């Protein structure tokens, strides 16, 4: 069963533009290489000089976090992220009501 991967973390607001360009390039490559849909989101507010960012990857296999971590390293994103990256998988469910 495939699932969606959500990864969130904090980036200094001063690094937002640089991070946006690098993360968008990383996701474009992953999307093309693995034929998946991606999204990059950012909180609108700044807290403690940081935005919260979120990467979204749709319909990925269970080992996709390893692929993303390799891409993060290759694109130099880790240097722009403050603190840990939080990773969560979600699966689609059907509701019967």
Number of strands: 4
- From the spread of the alpha carbons, the general shape counts as globular
Count of domains: 1
CATH fold field value: Alpha-Beta Plaits
Helical element count? Answer: 2
* Helix and strand composition category: alpha+beta
Distance between the termini: 23 Å
Mean pLDDT: 94
Percentage beta strand:
35-45%
Structural overview:
This protein has helices at residues 16-34, 64-74, and strands at residues 3-12, 38-42, 50-60, 81-90. It is an alpha+beta fold and 97 residues long. The chain has a single domain, classed as Alpha-Beta Plaits (2-Layer Sandwich), CATH 3.30.70.100. A 4-stranded antiparallel sheet has the order 2-3-1-4, with helices on one face. The model has no long low-confidence stretch (mean pLDDT 94).
